[in-house]
Amino acid sequence: MKTRMFIFASIASVTMAFPVMALDLAQARSSGAVGEKSDGYMTTLQNDPAAAALVAQINAKRQQEYASIARKSGQPVGVVAKLAAPQIINGLPAGSAYQMPNGSWKKR
Length: 108
Prior knowledge:
With 108 residues, the chain is α+β, with helices and mostly antiparallel strands. Helix content is 59%, strand content 11%.
């Protein structure tokens, strides 16, 4: 239980760190160029090189943070990432695309 609390607190701090790129990310989300996957990472939804570069940058930072949390909590990185996904998705602005656990896509 203590480990889970640590993971959730750490994930919360990770999701709060992403607004640094908010302008570009907000534009990418509102245009439908990117979406949040159910595994805690982003993906491109349109063939857009700028969106692909943004997604690669964000996913690299997320992977680093997830790995850090995983080391501290003793959980696999994949578990940490999947626990982060609902928190990220719940914080999305209206109109943002996200993947359901069954693989289908919805908009907030």
